[in-house]
Amino acid sequence: MNTIAFDIDADGIATLTIDVPGQSMNVIGPDFLADLDAAITRIASEEGIKGAVIASGKDSGFMAGMDLKFFGAMLAKAGDAPAPAALYDDLFVLNALFRRLETSGKPVACAIEGACVGGGFELALACHRRFVGDSPKTQLGLPEILIGLFPGGGGSQRLPRIMGVQAALMYMLQGKLFRPAEAAMLKVVDAVVPQGTAVTAAREWVKANPNATSQPWDVKGYKVPGGAGGFNPAFVQTMAGALPMTLKQTQRNMHAPIALLSAVYEGITLPMDKAIQIESQYFAKVAADPQASNMIRTLFVNKQAAERGARRPKGEAKAPTQKLAMLGAGMMGAGIATVAAQAGIEVVLFDRDLAYAQKGKAHVEDVLKKRLGKGMTPEKLEQTLARVTPTTDYADLAGADFVIEAVFEDVSIKAEVTKKVEEVLGADTIFGSNTSTLPITKLAQAWTKPENFIGVHFFSPVEKMPLVEIILGEKTGPAAIAKALDFVSQIKKTPIVVHDSRGFYTSRSFGTYVQEGAELVGEGVNPALIENAGKQLGMPTGPLAVSDEVSIELGWKIMSAAKKELGDAYVPQGSDDIMVQMVEAGRLGRKNGKGWYDYPAGGKKYLSPVLGEMFPRAAEQPGVEAVKERLLYRQLIECARCFAEGVLETPEDGDIGAIFGWGFAPYTGGPFSHMDTVGIAHVVAVLDRLAAAHGPRFAPTAQLREMAASGATFYRPATAQAA
Description:
alpha/beta
């Protein structure tokens, strides 16, 4: 066997040590399935084997889910029309194997050290006992819903039978993971043992329990914890509440959660053999839909590739940051200082006023204190905090090997700070600017060696937002790119790499969502309709609410700066006048308690009735689908323009940046995946119709028209399709 070492000790206990070659983490692929099949046959048939322990031979953890290359091959083999049926046949092989394991007639225990998620956790659930090593880094669970799938290896049937339907659904529908103690409390694992002793504990249990060969659900008289079935009031209440709650949370856009509810509802009262057939049928239908493959590609495959350095220049030596010069101690600068210090990096937190610099360090402390008991200890807090040094003295920056600037968004102010830093550190140091809109090429003029100047755009709040947008100026060199990407890797964020443009990719494309919302208000569309349409589209919040959060005044300032900078080249938007009206009325957003919404002290925000006076309602209101279409396609065309202009080099960066940067509807897999799925010709037709009705901001690019004519897609160019 290539993936499993099979050893039998003097007591007749077999230990199956999983170690999939060529993988940093154990995953389920064809070789593993073949080896597991052979191992189960031996366990069941050889009289000398009294029981078995399943463990991992990798330090990285027990096991993850399915090898996505294998899964992709299954999808490709399935083809188009018969995909669900073909996938069912392949997927049921996995389910049947796990079922054979738990009905082998021998006690089987699982020894878990480290991560155990997805299909790996489903394998563990098919064992008769689960022992887990006590480590704060260990996580267990079924997170498949987060990438457009649901547990398809028996997890949707076994977990509810172990912990009850209501609790199991809560974890599966959220993709929520367990820590060891939590898993034990919920009886998902049977014992938490000292780290490194799980195999010994599992072996001792197997030796002491030779007759423990059945799962609870295979024993006559078994009842699901909390009850199940159409005549059980608690079960009926759970399912009756779960469906509308899920529909509300997903805005009816996600297929996997509904399929999961159906699989649990239909399978929970049936014998396990029939239940896993039902699960496989629903799973195959979900997996065959483009939604799942789009989400898997962006949220898992491409995200991991980006984090592993897919865009890092080849041949550049690793350049981890040892000492960071953080210029600006506001919310953004303090947030960057926090994640850097947590990564073990020394941070000099500079500001013009010492009180501001100290306030920035206080922010670091506040964030760390909130993590006490969640992996953070008082000792670790003190060590992390000691890495942050507030200062107003440029001389204290000496020795820094990376600079990030997050001062006021003004070219002249940034230039002044940049030049003073160069006097201390020299132009050979890599300088990163955390601007959200100002062109990097222009900012780089203040640094003697523009090849060492790069944009490093973080998102607020830095501690929570996963994306960092790396922006290349016209002269940015490979050493700067490598340094920036290595820093992003150190702080465990996800990077995308884009080229220079006013607003770059994320701010520019996200801005269109806000702008179109303002345009709609100006046309007299009911603000509540606009907000609800945005949320139904799958955005985290409506365009007016997010405009308030980022500040209407900030949008106005960015627009005013662009007008001043570009002069006659500036292309005015209908939303410009709307923003001016709002600012002149003193409605700046949440920051001053009034924007599109009013924010009463101690109360909940509400759409301001003043809007009806400022922007009279149109007698005829559009339908919600028409509003959703405008909000969606205004973003799509801007993303397509960024690609056509070379701001984006790859659709992968475009999709990752959209979902993790501004919350673009995750169920689509991103704007480029979505355009490919609905068809470029369809996208062009809709844009032409919208442009005719609402103006040239919707006009398709020449590239989109060429793609529509040739049949190309973003992920499969015409040449690739022809080949």
